[in-house]
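Category: protein sequence paired with discrete backbone structure
Discipline: computational structural biology
Format: plain text, a pair of labelled lines
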Amino acid sequence: VGFVCDRASALGALYTLEGSRMGSAVIGMRMLAAGRPLGAPGYSFFDLRKDAAAHEWRAFKGLLDERLTSETELRRAVMAARGTFSLTRAMFNEV
């Protein structure tokens, strides 16, 4: 992807992807509470490892704090996160 050209941008793109994974655990819990079978084909993304996902999310945020030390790096990460989100949304609109 053209907007991921350095470490800060890569971390920004990963922020969007990791956030999606964390959100899938929350959605999975809600689906399970509503009686939807998560073992059905197409539902594997809604991982119920909510505790593990939360721990991994905190670790990832710690990595961001450690690696994004300048305003320039932070700006690049934010731009890449937004670009990744926009690209993902555009892809889903095509489906």
